[in-house]
Amino acid sequence: MPNNNPAASTVKFFKKNPAARVILLILILFAATYGSVEVLRIIVHTESPLMVVSSESMVPTLNVGDIIFVRGVDASSVKVGTIIIFHSPYDYQMPIVHRVLAISNDDNSLFFQTKGDNNPAPDGWKVPAKNLMGVYVAKLPYVGLISLELRGPLGVTLIIILIALIVAIEYSESKSSKRKSKS
Question: Distance (Å, rounded) from C-alpha 132 to C-alpha 117?
Answer without folding.
Answer: 18
